[in-house]
Specification:
With about 350 residues, the protein is of the alpha+beta class. It has eleven helices and nine strands. The strands form two sheets. It has a seven-stranded mixed beta sheet with strand order 1-4-5-9-8-7-6, sandwiched between helices. A two-stranded antiparallel ribbon has the order 2-3. It catalyses: tRNA(Phe) + L-phenylalanine + ATP = L-phenylalanyl-tRNA(Phe) + AMP + diphosphate + H(+).
């Protein structure tokens, strides 16, 4: 019996010595000291031992258990210390390394400019309305007093899907859709993407953005239009900004005008930015044509109104002094982070 216990002890100690992870030590403990372990098996066989030998055999078994447990605990402590050392080395923080920076998103210059324009007009009591980019020819042209033979409807200028459906060339169709609802008075702006068959260069793109405005009410005059746009220009470019209206022609407004503002770089004195004129063109406008009102079910004898439209990219280019429109679409993070 003593020899058998010695064999068990040596076998256990040899396995403990070879163990290199804590889980293996636990398996060894179970194999030798557990309820179904080898030492437990010997204790269960004590009934076959002569009564006078049982104390001696019991002492041998306890000594063997103590020896195995002692070596187990010692090996467990050594392995735990080694694992802790490895963990500390792998998780050490080098405070001299540069910090990891989060890549935070940034608003596009167009978005910044649009939010500024919307803030100004919402502050004057306007609502922001959006509409479809794929539009009917009727809403894009016919309802805006642009007849079938008008040059603007040339396929060289407009992206047609078929003879009745196209990619809108302006956001004016949104104004028509609102007028057709007959909920008067109307004070609205319609921002959105538009499409025209233009070559890409520093000032043109086949896809760009517009913001158009519309006011319909009783007794609306050109003076209301001038006052609105003068206030808008001061809010956008500074309180000293002045506006100038030049006669122009638009099929859907009469009378019509182009609007210039004093150069915000030189204050109207003339510089490279305004090409020496002291003025910068920013938008077109006019009184809504009576035909446009009639086609939308509004009586021009009772109601009148004005409309205006501006290129959002042009506002962004002017406000941030960008000299090439293509920079807005190239997604160069170095450029976009400047705004």
């Amino acid at each position: 019996m003593q020899e058998k216990l010695q064999q068990i002890k040596e076998k256990a100690l040899d396995q403990i010595k070879q163990a290199d992870v804590l889980d293996q030590l636990n398996d060894i403990r179970v194999a030798f000291l557990g309820k179904k372990g080898e030492l437990t098996g010997i204790l269960k066989g004590m009934k076959d031992v002569a009564p006078e030998d049982r104390p001696k055999v019991g002492q041998w078994v306890n000594d063997t258990r103590s020896a195995i447990e002692s070596v187990l605990e010692e090996r467990k402590g050594a392995l735990a210390a080694a694992m802790r050392e490895v963990k500390l080395k792998s998780e050490v923080i080098d405070v001299t390394l540069p910090a990891q920076k989060n890549s935070v998103g940034h608003r596009h210059p167009n978005t910044i400019a649009l939010e500024e324009v919307e803030r100004i007009f919402v502050g004057m009591g306007y609502e922001v309305v959006e509409g479809p980019e794929v539009e009917y020819d009727y809403y894009n042209f016919e309802a805006l007093n642009i007849p079938a033979n008008h040059p603007a409807k040339d396929e060289q200028d407009t992206f047609y899907i078929n003879d009745k459906i196209l990619l809108r060339t302006q956001t004016s169709p949104v104004q028509v859709r609102v007028m057709e609802q007959g909920k008067l008075p109307i004070r609205m702006i319609a921002p959105g993407r538009v499409f025209r068959s233009d070559e890409v260069d520093a000032t043109h793109s086949p896809s760009f953005h517009q913001v158009e405005g519309l006011v319909i009410d009783k007794n609306i005059t050109f003076a209301d239009l001038k006052g609105t746009l003068a206030e808008f220009a001061k809010e956008l470019f500074g309180p000293e900004t002045k506006v100038k209206f030049r006669p122009h022609h638009f099929p859907f407004t009469e009378p019509s005008a182009e609007v210039d503002v004093t150069c915000f770089k030189c204050g109207g004195k003339g510089c490279r930015f305004c090409k020496g004129s002291g003025w910068i063109e920013i938008l077109g406008c006019g009184m809504v044509h009576p035909n446009v009102l009639r086609m939308s079910g509004i009586d021009p004898e009772e109601y009148s109104g004005f409309a205006f439209g501006m290129g959002l990219e042009r506002i962004a280019l002017l406000k941030y002094e960008i000299d090439d429109m293509r920079l807005l679409y190239e997604n160069d993070v170095r450029f976009l982070k400047q705004f």
